[in-house]
Amino acid sequence: MAQTFTFNVGPSAVYPAVRQYLQDAYDEGWLSVPHRGERFTGLVRQTVADLKAKLNVPQDYTVLFTGSATECWEILAQGLTPRRSFHLYNGEFGKKWFDYARALRPASTGVQFGLDEIPDMGALPFSGEDTDLVCITQNETSTATQLRETHILNLFNRLGGALLAVDATSSLAGLNLKYIKADAWFGSVQKCFGLPAGLGVLILSPRAVAQAKEVNDRAHYNGLPAALSNMLNHQTNYTPNVLGIYLLSRVMAEREPIKVVAQHLADRAQKLYDFFEQATPLQPLIANPDARSTTVIGLRGEAPLIEEIKRKALDAGLTLGGGYGPLKSTTIRLANFPAVPDAAMEALVQFFVKEYVAV
Ligand SMILES: *Cc1c(COP(=O)(O)O)cnc(C)c1O
């Protein structure tokens, strides 16, 4: 049988080595290891050290494990937001985050921006005086858009007393993010980490840790003060996803530094956008190159064409990611994640050349 590839954007392709890691986890006894014992705390210490080293996370930032990115939305509303948060979003994930935050902190506000728009950070309607947390989605998976480093920096520079929280679920471990320029970063491992779902990673600045202690949310099982004090001993406040943490440790140990990974993805993204724009009946979903995601390639076309392409691709062994929310039937999304091999991208281009490029 010909090789098959998946371009789903989450859950997405896992590294082939995960098969061996799963066997090793079983054989080495990790599936029954006590989460207060030295073996487990040693694993957490090593995983956090490797993650910080490979992703360029500052040493004074704190890494916490959660169950998902969605859980992080709620943790941040509970734990860092006594009054209100402000949300800047252009897609479904950013909007959902706003919805979760508003359910817990009804005074929270938000602004939606256009798909091809670079928002003017200086003009955003929030005040650092009465806003605890400013929330952005660095890579909006549903719209295949991205906020570049300079725009995040502009926002960071006008925060006043607020903290900046960044949903980086489909870019964490794929892009060289400047962690120093925000206070809370989070994602889950089924996207750019190339792992099965069930584990979230929350990265906090010293400022965020100080605010978490001040807010002192003790009313929730996943409250930050308990998570932070447990993490001082490389533990978690409840029995965690030990298998997920073990798999993460293996992937992080094997990974190239993020600079190398991110450059590879940027090169691939450029090639794909150029190819689709010039040679196929599909167009990039996002017309403005500065607003395009490098990890989620969005393409648009008429609904019947999209449906046909997805069906023919599947016959050729290629699972293309569908659209999300209101863009479901008129877009295709392609994961340009580290675990998607170059061979998959080549097979994808071959498929389009064969089926859709006039010669
Ligand atoms: C996938 C995704 C989420 C949700 O992740 P879960 O692990 O399912 O909670 C949140 N935000 C963004 C930007 C995503 O891509």
Please explain how this structure is put together.
The chain folds into two domains: 5-12 and 258-356, Alpha-Beta Complex (Aspartate Aminotransferase, domain 1); 18-254, Type I PLP-dependent aspartate aminotransferase-like (Major domain) (Aspartate Aminotransferase, domain 2). Helices cover 40% and strands 16% of the residues. It has eleven helices and 15 strands. Strand 6 (139-140) and strand 7 (145-146) form a beta hairpin. Helix 2 (38-55) crosses helix 8 (242-254), helix 3 (69-80) packs parallel to helix 4 (92-104) and helix 9 (258-279) runs parallel beside helix 11 (342-356). The two termini are 28 Å apart. The mean pLDDT is 97. Bound molecules: pyridoxal-5'-phosphate. Residues 10, 68-70, 93, 137, 141, 167, 169-170, 188, 200 line the site of pyridoxal-5'-phosphate.
What is the radius of gyration? 21 Å
State the order of secondary-structure elements, H for helix, E for strand.
Answer: EHHEHEHEEEEHEEEHHHHEEHEEEH
The CATH class assignment of the largest domain is: Alpha Beta
Estimate percent helicity: 25-40%
Distance between the termini: 28 Å
What's the arrangement of secondary structure elements?
Layout (H helix, E strand, L loop, with lengths): L4 E2 L11 H10 L10 H18 L6 E5 L2 H12 L4 E5 L2 H13 L4 E4 L20 E5 L1 E2 L4 E2 L2 H8 L6 E5 L16 E5 L11 E5 L1 H10 L8 H8 L10 H13 L3 H22 L3 E2 L11 E5 L2 H13 L2 E2 L1 E2 L8 E5 L6 H15 L3
Parallel strand pairs: 1-13, 3-4, 3-5, 5-8, 8-9
Antiparallel strand pairs: 2-10, 6-7, 9-10, 11-12, 12-15, 14-15
The structure holds pyridoxal-5'-phosphate.
Pyridoxal-5'-phosphate binds next to helix 3.
